[in-house]
Amino acid sequence: MSVLNIAMIGTDDLAREIAKPTDQRDVHTYVHKESGPDGPRILSIIRPAKYPERLRPFLNALSAARVGIIEVEAVDATLGESLVAFASAGITKGIAIINPPAGQWIDEDQVKMLFSQAGLSDWTFGSKDGIELRNLLYSFMDDISEILASNAEAPLVIPVDQYFNVKGIGLVAIGYVQSGTVNVHDELVLLPANGTGNAKSLQVMDDDVPSAVAGDRVGLALRNAKEDHLGSGTLLVRPAVEDKKTNTSIPLAVVAHNRSTMKLTRSPFQKRELAVGDVVHASVDLQFVVGRVTSTDSETMEVAWEVPLFIRREDPQPTLIAQLDSKPRIMGSATLVFIE
């Protein structure tokens, strides 16, 4: 089963043209499934319903997504910020749909220029037709099929965004598999608590499965795990391996940063410069961590994080840097180097 996660800024009506709604919390999700030559192929739309009022759900959607959709209803600050966010997240494939309110008009050339200036010149401009949009999204899935497959072979990282106790099952954690593959009976480490648990059972799309791969939204029933070891921003990874008999040494998939050197690639729409003492928010792998700039020079700065920020050892995602009192709130993307 192949899954393509799509971050969407747009209306519920347009999302329903493409897929069926499945969950209507702060982040609305929609799913469309078709049979392919190698099994089911799933389009999963992640739509932060309360954006632009709330930024974090949008950043979480970007963290889980591989492609994007923007429904352009006006040329305004919200459009500019969403362009900055998609570009900073490295989402270079996507669809723009120009859809002004009745009686209003939007200059398509102006919108295309803004997409190009933001770094999204490869995005496709499409219509509101659901079949056409699904076909485009499936073509994107084909284009990045090798990337999706290789991501399933990477070290396991699952950020948890929901958890609860279920009668007769026990503690259940839910999240997107950001990289790797998790199997029933796998031993897991719960970070930052350093607790442990065992994957007693797995569910994807309400079906019991023996394994879940990168891109899947998975529910894990955890055996021998403590509920107080779970929280917002918890990551599930495999335990480190130190076996002297076989000379095997495999570290955890992520590194905990308490302080980092940060090289910021600033958005072309962002004019604000960061200075010592500034507070920033970092978003990566569905984490949202507060930091403070402690020193800066012409190219890099040092940031101390309020709680540990976990960065993948292999092929880390872009870390989005935001300042909630800036316009746009997204500063850009950053490369972080471990200090402490």
Please characterize this protein's 3D structure.
The chain has three domains: 2-151, 3-Layer(aba) Sandwich (Rossmann fold), CATH 3.40.50; 158-250, Elongation Factor Tu (Ef-tu), domain 3, CATH 2.40.30; 254-338, Elongation Factor Tu (Ef-tu), domain 3, CATH 2.40.30. The model has no long low-confidence stretch (mean pLDDT 94). The chain is an alpha+beta fold. It is globular and about 70 Å long. It is built from six helices and 24 strands.
- CA gyration radius, whole angstroms: 20 Å
CATH C-level class of the largest domain is Alpha Beta
Strand order of the largest sheet: 2-3-4-1-5-6-7
- How many separate domains? 3
Shape from CA axes? globular
Number of helices: 6
User: Describe the biggest sheet?
Assistant: 7 strands, mixed
The overall strand count is 24
CATH-defined architecture of the largest domain: 3-Layer(aba) Sandwich
The CATH superfamily name of the largest domain is P-loop containing nucleotide triphosphate hydrolases
Give the topology string: H per helix, E per strand.
EHEEEHEHEHEHHEEEEEEEEEEEEEEEEE
Oligomer: single chain
What percentage of the residues does DSSP assign to strands (E)? over 45%
